[in-house]
Amino acid sequence: MKVLVTGPFGNVGSHAVPELVREGHAVRTFDLDTPATRRVARAIGGRLDLRWGDVRDARAVAEAVAGVDAILHLAALIPPGSEERPEDARAVNVGGTENVLRGAAAQRSPPRVLYTSSLDVHGRTQQRPPPRRVDDPLEATDAYTASKIACEERIRASGLPFCILRLSDVPVIGLRDPHPIMFEIGLHNRIESMHADDAAVALARALRTPEVWGRVLFVGGGPSCQLTYREYLAKLMRAMGMEPLPDEAFSDADYVTDWLDTAESQRLLGYQRRSFDDIARDVAACLGWRRALVPVASPLVRRTMLELSPYWKRRAR
Fold first, then answer.
1. DSSP-assigned letter for residue 187
2. Is the pTM of this model over 0.85?
């Protein structure tokens, strides 16, 4: 089929697009034209129908939607950017989704819409026994979750064929700078991850699985990817040759993470192939030759990371 992917060159999209191509789909992409997105597009290669634009631009979205059979709508402003720029988050996430839905509804043969939401829409649930289920209550806790809940409502009301997949945490398989938000998650929090390649398989298979349409499903890594945040960080850092950071650097607050009931999505889509140890190994592999420098650079890296923690700074003072 002909598939439009919005936000194709972000973390999940950069894995989903090659998977769709491997499955034989004609893939049209729609993303912001930046040096970063151009680099990812070149790295993916292949025969892609590249369209550049902003999901806030209704006319550009309508042109991108024309003639496709399905839309994989990934485009979104996520934390921490969504909390630093909440008005942009609303405009991109909700306004962009409205543009996609209007463009789809205007087609003579409206395409189906596969939308990626987040487990975060269930709020802070650490005081409830796991796992979370898709019919658990929704709770907006920040600009991002408020926008995701609003998008889900609009998709359900659109009259279009839809599927909503609420994704677990999907770590970036690559190197990125740490951000202070990492210290706002209490180490006791339950967190479920999923390899980006497994997320890509789930999305691609959902497009051709009749049983998912009209439904909301959790998609996550499964039992082998269910950890506490303490275990999550420790495994990632040790895979990179570093010791875990001290407890005092972290908040003790509950966060919008949890373990998920993914039995139904796994039954339908069969996508869970990698454990969290696989994720940690693949993230560490991105260090390449830098891995040999870790024993020397570790104290400096550790100090740089701790300087991002407001809790560690307070303790130091």
1. T
2. yes
